[in-house]
Amino acid sequence: MTFTDLNLHASLLKAITDQGYTTPTPVQAQAIPFILEGRDMLAGAQTGTGKTAGFTLPLLQILTEKTMPKSNRKIRALILTPTRELAAQVAESVKIYGKYLPLKSAVIFGGVGINPQITMLRNGIDILIATPGRLLDHIGQGTVDLSAVEVFVLDEADRMLDMGFIRDIRRVITILPKHRQNLMFSATYSDEIKTLANTLLRNPAEVEVARRNTSSELVTQSVILVDCKRKSALLGELIAKHKWEQVLVFTRTKHGANKLTEYLQKIGITAAAIHGNKSQAARTKALDDFKRSAVRVLVATDIAARGIDIDALPHVVNFELPNIAEDYVHRIGRTGRAGCEGEALSLVCVDEADYLRGIEKLINKKLDSRIIEGYEPDPTIKAEPIQRGRGGAGGSGNRGGNGGGGDRGGKPTQKRDSGRHEPKRRDNDRRH
User: Fold this and answer.
1) Helix (H) or strand (E) holding 138
2) What is residue 393's predicted lDDT score, i.e. its pLDDT?
3) pLDDT range class, residue 31, cuts 50, 70, 90
4) CA atoms within 13 A on the CB side of 21
5) pLDDT band at 169; cut points 50, 70, 90
6) What is the second-level CATH architecture of the domain 3-208?
7) Of the candidates 417, 386, 156, 132, which has an alpha carbon nearest to the alpha carbon of residue 275?
8) Residue 333, CB half-sphere, CA atoms under 13 Å: how many?
9) Could you give the strand order of the β-sheet that contains 105-108, starting from the edge strand earlier in sequence?
10) Measured on CA atoms in the order 14, 15, 21, 24, is the torsion positive or negative?
11) DSSP one-letter string for 241-297
């Protein structure tokens, strides 16, 4: 099958050709016809499968086929995403594929001034890409009109729920016109996603191009067993020894990301951190530097990394395992994209044994584990519970060495650790 077989507009086909694509990915081949038919849809696809173009292309076609007077241009499509980075990525996709079409789009998120966004909205747009918090800011100020929305796209729905945006989503839905097309995309099909889909979608087509909660077969996954306090030194040695030039490293917390970044810089490895406490400008610069190889290592928390889309990213390292097993799938989904092979390596200490078992149960796969000479785990160290809370950095605790992740302290009064709580102020995305 080629894109021509999908009956897309000639202007869209030209833009696709400009990007060097001829064959749609499985999610694109399945989703695009349903969307063009005007059906609601629930699509489950891992990151890196081309899902963004899977809804961007038919969305652009639908809006193009029904032209509206430019003098009375209103928002006809709303795309809601959980993070700034993902919103920017979707906006770029709309721009790339819609460059030969007479449509206007805008993206709004927090962390930047609201007044330029108000000006854009007043000038009239067809497609709005937004994060929940900033969209509700505009709704509250009366600076956005959603009364003409024909298509509503809820992207990364599983992350939306995990970040606590369910009330915001429901509030937005109540404002939208009753009669509209709804498209819901999710990396996983959880029971919560099914519940949300039942309330949002009408007789939806269902597309799922990856088995539930599976990891990409193109990603080589392995584990190195190592004491918590020696993780930083081991990571530095691996990067230097194997001459890794582009490595995405995950920590559980913002503090841990900062500390590891400082350690890598200290030993001469260029690195940058990206998390919710960083300004939008700092996050954008760090990501751009990483993409153009100005820094070798990007250290990220789970939420900040959502939406990172890097072609042929070779290495993902779990410096600390996530306390929620599904996040492991999201993390390693940053590599092994679009037919390219990748490597996902996890540095696991004795405290994380339960996390590892949970991940292996979720993906239904036993991960190969090994020990590096000179970094053998101390058998006398006993596992301690990983306390999670805003105060603690989680994971490496008072066993942590340079960049090891901080104190074990911190009140374990909340279910998720501080790395998972970054957006509880309603995102990073609400700050002006």
Assistant:
1) helix 132-141
2) 33
3) very high
4) 20
5) very high
6) 3-Layer(aba) Sandwich (3.40)
7) 417
8) 24
9) 105-108, 127-130, 77-80, 151-154, 181-186, 41-44, 205-208
10) negative
11) HTT---EEEE-SSHHHHHHHHHHHHHTT--EEEE-TTS-HHHHHHHHHHHHTTSSSE
pTM of the predicted model as reported, rounded to 2 decimal places: 0.62
Provide the mean pLDDT of the chain.
83
Using DSSP, state whether 411 is helix, strand or coil.
Answer: coil
Structure tokens at 169: 């989503």
Is 199:346 a contact under the CB 8 Å cutoff?
no
Q: Structure tokens of 393?
A: 């950095």
Examine the pLDDT at 396 and tell me if it is beyond 70: no
pLDDT at position 107 over 60: yes
Amino acid found at 393: A
Beta-carbon count within 10 A of 62 CB: 17
Q: Specify whether the backbone of 305 is left (phi greater than 0), alpha (psi in -120 to 50) or beta.
A: alpha
Instruction: State phi, psi for 343 to the nearest 5 degrees.
Output: -125, 130
- Residue extent(s) of CATH 3.40.50.300 domains in the chain: 3-208, 219-418
State how far the Cα of 234 lies from the Cα of 152, in Å rounded to an integer: 46
Tokens of 286: 């760090």
CATH class of 219-418: alpha beta
Could you tell me if 300 and 275 are in contact, meaning their C-beta atoms sit under 8 angstroms apart? yes
Residue in 260, 302, 319, 327 with CA at minimum distance from that of residue 422: 302
Residue whose C-alpha is closest to residue 375's, from 273, 210, 229, 217: 229
Q: What is the mean pLDDT of residues 361-372?
A: 89
